[in-house]
Specification:
Blueprint: H1 9-24, H2 39-58, H3 65-83, H4 94-106, E1 118-123, H5 126-136, E2 141-144, E3 151-155, E4 159-164, E5 167-173, H6 181-197, H7 225-231, H8 236-256, E6 260-266, E7 268-269, E8 281-282, H9 290-304, E9 312-319, H10 327-341, E10 348-354, H11 361-369, E11 374-377, H12 384-389, H13 396-409, E12 413-420, H14 427-438, E13 443-450, H15 467-483, E14 486-492, E15 503-508, H16 514-521, E16 525-530, E17 534-539, E18 542-547, H17 552-563
Parallel strand pairs: 1-2, 1-3, 6-9, 6-16, 7-8, 9-10, 10-11, 11-12, 12-13
Antiparallel strand pairs: 3-4, 4-5, 13-15, 14-15, 17-18
Helix pairs in contact: 1-2, 2-4, 3-4, 5-6, 8-16, 9-10, 9-17, 10-11, 14-15
């Protein structure tokens, strides 16, 4: 409530300033009252605490107010102490100055967010502003065009007005000379909500889309640091990530441009993880659909792959959990894919085996026989209590056994997925999981996900780790992996992702997944097969997307109708 009246505190601040300055220049009067030694320092502290509080309220919505108040206080205190030398009975005292400055230092350690649950944006470019806010600020309800909620933003082509509980809060002008006025408005609203929350909203600033590195294509001369920090409010370390990822994409592009990658989706899982929202079905519960699905998938590949206009450069089998396929069915699916696509010119053939408890030597040798050169063994975490909490059936020992099986089979690239932000896990858990992976010499791809709860998952939006702790884990991972010869090579974001962070893949030199880079960068066509898979066809600067049915029975029936 107090923040509505911040303008009234501006004169109060200067009255306090004047009172302190006047009192400090009066001749010293000894009242012979000593409560304790150093009581004058405490009185100084209380005086300047009052000044710091009123200043913090008065200039609550001024950018970088803490630094401005601190520097102003530092100058005022220095001048005030120097004047003490000319006042009878007084002398400059360094420790008095320190006591005066402490309240302003304490402001840096304290956050003063404006409390609200709902905010509405209406007027010019309201949908763009709405999409930005609901993407970078979790836990709040945003609407547009309703003019309801504790915070209401009214946008015109000339100004942006922010109201709080029906009272004007502050106003921002719209720069008419700015080429993209919509972007300018989004940036002003982002900055305003950073002030409202009293913190940086996201390390990625205005880049909340799935593929933030795509902005690099539009930067003049590819000079990223200045434009990304000024125009998009991207943090410096994230700019560095974008530059590294973009350089990898430029290296991969000539190898995949003008080709097609196949994605084969296997929808079955041994169990459903609490965080998962992907299309997946319990193999045990839906066992009656297993054989019809394999039949439908093989029929779809037999009919569609020969019709592809471009050569196949990569194959990626994901899910779900591909290792839920029985050995003979795995052999059949791989056989159809390789026979129809050809394997002589494949850059990469990945199978996201996933669940460690399903690994067998026979399955790995089967993959190797059909030319698979990249396999994913995904522990997500090595901690038993977390694995149990999220519904994973595998243990740490299962993961080690699965890794050893893959390594002994001789796969060129072994990837391990881990998730930061799982309920109950802190920095120490993430550190231990990462250390365990780095102790395995055959793992040359490590993909780190920040938990992104979805409505389709059991976990929902509760129980995720706090952003500051997550950022510490991501920073630690970046530094540690770099020391061990890993570099970031692809990344993507998701809405509601924990800490507004990113999912990021690391690899050793020359071991990057071409498919991941091409898929996220939309560098080539993707032909999707199986339940819920997407086909993406490049059309000029855009991408046309077609999706297979997500419902298992509908997919089987659709394939029967189309291909007999």
């Amino acid at each position: 409530m107090l923040w509505r009246y911040h303008k009234f505190f501006v004169p109060v601040f200067f009255v306090c300033l004047l009172a302190i300055g006047t009192i400090s220049k009066l001749p010293d009067v000894d009242l012979h009252i000593t409560l304790f030694e150093g009581q004058d320092k405490l009185f100084h502290f209380f005086e300047y605490t009052l000044l710091a509080i009123t200043g913090n309220i008065a200039f609550r919505f001024v950018p970088r107010r803490r630094w401005k108040l601190f520097l102003f206080a530092l100058l005022f205190i220095a001048v005030d102490e120097l004047f003490q030398a000319y006042i009878p009975g007084r002398d400059p005292d360094f420790w008095d100055g320190v006591a005066d400055l402490i309240p302003f230092l304490l402001l840096f350690a304290t956050r003063f967010p404006v409390p609200y649950k709902r905010a509405d944006v209406s007027g010019f470019e309201e949908t763009k502003a709405f999409e930005l806010l609901r993407s970078v600020i979790p836990g709040k309800k945003f609407t547009h065009g309703r003019k309801e909620g504790e915070i209401c933003i009214e946008i015109t082509e000339k100004e942006i007005r922010f109201n709080y509980l029906g009272k004007p809060l502050f106003t921002r002008s719209v720069d008419a000379s700015f080429n993209d006025r919509g972007h300018f408005i989004k940036r002003e609203i982002y900055d305003a909500f950073s002030l409202i929350h009293d913190r940086r909203l996201s390390p990625w600033g205005l880049l909340f889309q799935t593929r933030p590195h795509k902005v690099m294509h539009y930067l003049p001369g590819k000079e990223a640091l200045g434009p990304l920090r000024e125009l998009f409010r991207v943090r410096k370390d994230k700019v560095r990530l974008l530059e590294q990822v973009y350089r990898t994409e430029e290296k991969i592009l000539p190898r995949v441009e003008g080709t097609t990658a196949l994605y084969i989706g296997i929808p079955f899982c041994p169990s459903r993880c609490a965080y998962c929202s992907f299309t997946s079905y319990s193999k045990e519960k839906y066992s009656r659909y297993y054989k019809p699905f394999v039949e439908a998938l093989c029929r779809e590949m037999e009919e569609r792959i020969p019709l592809l206009e471009q050569s196949v450069s990569m194959i990626y089998m994901g899910g779900g959990t591909p290792f839920t396929l029985e050995d003979r069915d795995m052999e059949r699916v791989l056989g159809v894919a390789t026979r129809k696509a050809g394997v002589s010119s494949l850059l990469e053939f990945t199978v996201e085996a996933g669940r460690p408890e399903l690994f067998t030597k026979e399955k790995c040798e089967l993959l190797k026989k059909f030319g698979v050169n990249r396999i994913a063994v995904n522990p997500q975490t090595i901690h038993p209590s977390t694995l149990e909490r999220i519904g994973r059936l595998a243990t740490r020992e299962d993961f080690i056994r699965a890794y050893e099986t893959a390594f002994e089979t001789g796969f060129e690239i072994i990837n391990a997925d881990i998730i930061f932000g799982l309920p109950g896990e802190k920095f120490s858990h993430h550190k231990a999981t990462l250390k365990a992976l780095l102790g395995l010499e055959g793992i040359n791809n490590i993909t780190i996900h920040a938990l992104a709860p979805k409505r389709g998952s059991e976990m929902g939006f509760h129980g995720t780790e706090k952003r500051r702790s997550l950022e510490r884990s991501f920073d630690y991972a970046y530094r540690t992996l770099n020391r061990h010869g890993f570099s970031p090579y692809y990344l993507y974001k998701q809405r509601h992702i924990a800490g507004n962070l990113e999912n990021i893949g690391y690899s050793r030199e020359g071991k990057e997944s071409c498919y991941n880079v091409a898929m996220i960068g939309e560098l080539c066509n993707i032909a999707g097969f199986g339940v819920g898979s997407s086909t993406k066809i490049k059309r000029g600067l855009g991408v046309e997307t077609r999706k297979n049915p997500k419902d298992l029975t509908l997919y089987i029936e659709t394939m029967r109708k189309l291909y007999g």
